[in-house]
């Protein structure tokens, strides 16, 4: 769906390259998360994929065609939800969606149906200026879906949303994948990326050399040990045991039979840990 | 699909409808439009009273003859200001970014705003001319055209020179002074010649120097100065809008 090959880009008057030889691909129907520290070039990568930035070197193609070769018709097939609200504040939610719907060539999705998807149907006739940031972000998502796009670019889609609402938004993203949409997501929220993404790439120093499924990365960067917490007279105590040959580890088996165990879990890395390791190693 | 796809009637209507709703929901914008359109009518209706007052209180004879240029250009300037402020808001609040990723694009949207602005300012100037200069119909089309370009200049200048809405409000105080620019045509040389780079000067030149018939070279010169200024501001504007 998206193929970026050896992309380098330097902003005019920028200090150094933002992207230096970035190579990644986003497959049809997958949710791909591009992760990285602030200023690492995530938005630049999205902009290049959307054909909004020129002057880069390397090869970029979307829908199997070079970026920019499809003219403005390209935008009939994509939807973009930016990190910040991009709405007409004096218009109502419904007026906003009807306006954007008129800008596309094909039939648009029903605005009320979209508002219902994000739980804003009761606020359809409310002015956007009176919305909270989380509500604006949900409306942003509706705007990105109004043309029923094949490819969605989502930048921090759950910003400003409470945990319960953010979970519903993540459910919606998964639903969109089930409908066959391809989603290119950028986020700082590692838990979110872990939850929804099929694959993630870490963008560090203008490159994404580490791209894999979250589960594989967590395993690769974690420790193959089991951490056991027990209650002792002096308080809680933690012990770790290597996963290898655990069934033959006498100390562990003894502890298991002692009945002192409170909790027990493997110390696989979280995506946060992977992020810190990857970004940290880049600074070293 | 190109920027010209904005010409599709439904698309044009939805964009215009959104702008109209925005203006009617913002008292500051609405009041400015109202002032712009009522000023020429008030001057036409109370011309004698205004002349008498200016003569008695300020010692200026035939004040309304000078005020005509101001009253004529002010609707266009205020309509341009309203459009410029809307464009600044679109940049500050984000819709311009969202429009960039639609088939319309920023270019198409700016084309729409320019077209609609020219049309409205043109109609508003014709309306003002009808009240202020009912006998000089030969000047109607050239003056309406130049003043509508003047309104685009104001709109572009706001977006090109102001970084945000607050700066836009401050800048508008300076830009509104351009309503006095036609009076520069009444000055003697060398100030007249220096003033020739100010587009509004040429509106005064046409207004005060032309009689029943407009001189074509004068009009072409006025048009060239306006288009030149527009070209420069458009370049700055497109750079500012990214």
3D structure, described in words:
- The complex is a heterodimer of chains A (284) and B (242).
- With 284 residues, chain A is of the alpha/beta class.
- Chain A is 32% helix and 27% strand.
- Chain A has helices spanning 42-49, 93-101, 111-117, 133-145, 163-178, 190-196, 214-221, 250-258, 271-283; strands at residues 2-9, 19-26, 31-35, 57-62, 65-66, 78-81, 151-155, 182-187, 199-204, 207-212, 225-232, 235-242, 261-266.
- In chain A, helix 3 packs across helix 4 and helix 7 (214-221) crosses helix 9.
- The longest helix of chain A is centred in the middle third of the chain and has 16 residues, at 163-178.
- Chain B has 242 residues and is mostly helical.
- Chain B is built from eleven helices and no strands.
- In chain B, helix 7 (140-161) runs antiparallel to helix 10 (199-209).
- The model of chain B has no long low-confidence stretch (mean pLDDT 86).
- Chain A binds chain B through residues 50, 52, 71-73, 75-76, 78, 80, 82, 84-91, 95, 98-100, 102-105, 127, 143, and chain B through 1-3, 5, 10-11, 14-15, 17-18, 21-22, 25-26, 89-90, 93-95, 97-105, 108.
Reconstruct the topology from this structure.
The complex is a heterodimer of chains A (284) and B (242).
Chain A lengths: L1 E8 L9 E8 L4 E5 L6 H8 L7 E6 L2 E2 L11 E4 L11 H9 L9 H7 L15 H13 L5 E5 L7 H16 L3 E6 L2 H7 L2 E6 L2 E6 L1 H8 L3 E8 L2 E8 L7 H9 L2 E6 L4 H13 L1
Parallel strand pairs in A: 3-8, 3-9, 6-7, 7-8
Antiparallel strand pairs in A: 1-2, 1-4, 4-5, 9-10, 11-12, 11-13
Chain B lengths: L8 H16 L2 H19 L1 H12 L4 H31 L1 H6 L4 H28 L7 H22 L3 H12 L14 H5 L3 H11 L6 H26 L1
């Amino acid at each position: 769906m998206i193929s970026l090959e050896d992309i380098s880009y330097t902003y005019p008057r920028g200090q150094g390259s933002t992207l230096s030889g970035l190579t990644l691909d986003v497959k049809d129907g997958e949710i791909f998360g591009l992760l990285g520290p602030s200023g690492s070039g995530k938005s630049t990568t999205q902009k290049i994929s959307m054909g909004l930035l020129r002057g880069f070197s390397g090869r970029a193609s979307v829908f199997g065609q070079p970026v920019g070769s499809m003219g403005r018709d390209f935008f009939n097939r994509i939807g973009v939800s930016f990190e910040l609200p991009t709405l007409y504040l004096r218009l109502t939610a419904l007026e906003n969606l009807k306006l954007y719907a008129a800008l596309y060539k094909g039939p648009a999705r029903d605005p009320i149906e979209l508002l219902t998807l994000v739980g804003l149907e009761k606020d359809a006739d409310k002015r956007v200026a009176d919305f909270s940031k989380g509500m604006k972000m949900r409306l942003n998502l509706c705007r990105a879906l109004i043309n029923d796009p094949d490819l969605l670019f989502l930048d921090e889609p759950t910003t400003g949303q409470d945990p319960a609402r953010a979970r519903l938004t993540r459910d919606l993203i998964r639903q969109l994948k089930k409908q066959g949409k391809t989603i290119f997501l950028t986020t700082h929220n590692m838990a979110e990326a872990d939850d929804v993404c099929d694959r993630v790439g870490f963008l560090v120093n203008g490159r994404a050399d580490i791209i894999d499924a979250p589960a594989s990365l967590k395993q690769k960067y974690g420790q193959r040990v089991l951490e056991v917490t027990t209650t002792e007279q002096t308080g809680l105590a933690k012990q770790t045991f290597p996963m290898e040959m655990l069934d033959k580890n006498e100390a562990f088996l003894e502890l298991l039979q002692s009945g002192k165990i409170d909790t027990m879990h493997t110390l696989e890395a979280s995506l946060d840990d992977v992020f810190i390791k990857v970004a940290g190693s880049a600074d070293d | 699909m190109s920027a010209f796809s904005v010409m599709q009637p439904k698309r044009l209507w939805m964009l215009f409808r959104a702008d109209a709703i925005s203006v009617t929901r913002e008292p500051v914008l609405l009041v400015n439009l109202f002032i712009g359109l009522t000023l020429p009518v008030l001057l036409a209706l109370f011309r004698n009273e205004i002349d008498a007052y200016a003569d008695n209180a300020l010692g200026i004879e035939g004040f309304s003859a000078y005020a005509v240029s101001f009253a004529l250009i002010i609707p266009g300037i205020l309509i341009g200001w309203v459009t410029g402020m809307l464009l600044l808001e679109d940049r500050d609040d984000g819709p311009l970014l969202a429009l960039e990723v639609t088939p319309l694009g920023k270019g198409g949207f700016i084309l729409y705003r320019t077209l609609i602005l020219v049309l409205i300012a043109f109609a508003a100037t014709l309306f003002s001319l009808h009240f202020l200069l009912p006998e000089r119909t030969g000047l109607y089309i050239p003056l309406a055209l130049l003043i509508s370009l003047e309104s685009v200049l104001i709109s572009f200048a706001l977006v090109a020179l102001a970084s945000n809405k607050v700066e836009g409000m401050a800048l508008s105080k300076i830009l509104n002074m351009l309503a006095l620019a036609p009076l520069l045509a009444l000055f003697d040389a060398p100030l007249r010649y220096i003033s020739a780079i100010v587009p509004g000067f040429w509106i005064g030149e046409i207004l005060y120097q032309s009689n029943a018939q407009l001189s074509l070279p004068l009009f072409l010169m006025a048009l060239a100065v306006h288009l030149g200024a527009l070209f420069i501001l458009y370049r700055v504007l497109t750079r500012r809008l990214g």
